[in-house]
Amino acid sequence: KAMVNSGTAKVTGTFDLSNTDSNTIRKINAALRKLYENKPEIKVTLDLSEVSNLTELEDAFLPGGLPGGVADPNGEMYSFNSCDNLKEIILPQNLEKIGEGAFHNCRNLERIIIPNNVNYLGACAFFNCSNLKDVQLSTSIKELKDRTFCNCTALEQIEIPGNIETLDRAF
Fold it and tell me: 134: part of which helix (H) or strand (E)?
């Protein structure tokens, strides 16, 4: 259910986040994409900060498949790939891995703080996030992989910790 008041939307519960796993994230992705399909003007801030059992956002690309919103045989999208109405996401502190393409094509994502426990940031993780302006990276990440921030044309600020050893065509 959504209630719109003065340009803001308050979404009330349909997801049990106490046992969050990849399937729950896929369901959230489907709900966000459906919302965008019906109400593209509504932008969403998703707060997962209280989720204590989510340690990984899975790769968004099928093994051997093409990036860019390729669905699996069941029509599901992985992680937050192609959630065009996602404006901001607050990730849980216990998150350790952000998979390949996890936020690929989130064209309205503006800001993200990657928690310090994240030690892996997959290739193309934020590829084509054309409104991404502000990124704070985890101090545990040692490598920025291929095209991590490619086509992030609005990027104004990114804090790159001194421990980054490799920038593999990240921008």
Answer: strand 134-136
Report whether 144 contacts 121 (CB < 8 A): yes
The closest of 40, 41, 21, 45 to 113, measured between CA atoms, is 45
Cα angle for residues 83, 95, 43 (degrees, 5° grid): 25
40-86 confidence digits (pLDDT tens): 888 888 888 888 788 888 776 555 444 444 444 444 456 888 888 89
Residue that is written with structure tokens 């393409």 in the block: 101
Is the separation of the CB atoms in 114 and 141 below 8 Å?
yes
Taking alpha carbons only, the member of 46, 39, 168, 52 closest to residue 102 is: 46
Pairing of strands 86-90, 44-47: parallel
CA 91 to CA 82: how far, in whole Å? 17
Query: What tens digit of pLDDT does each residue of 121-153 get?
Result: 988 899 999 999 999 999 999 888 888 899 999
The amino acid present at 103, given as its one-letter code, is: F
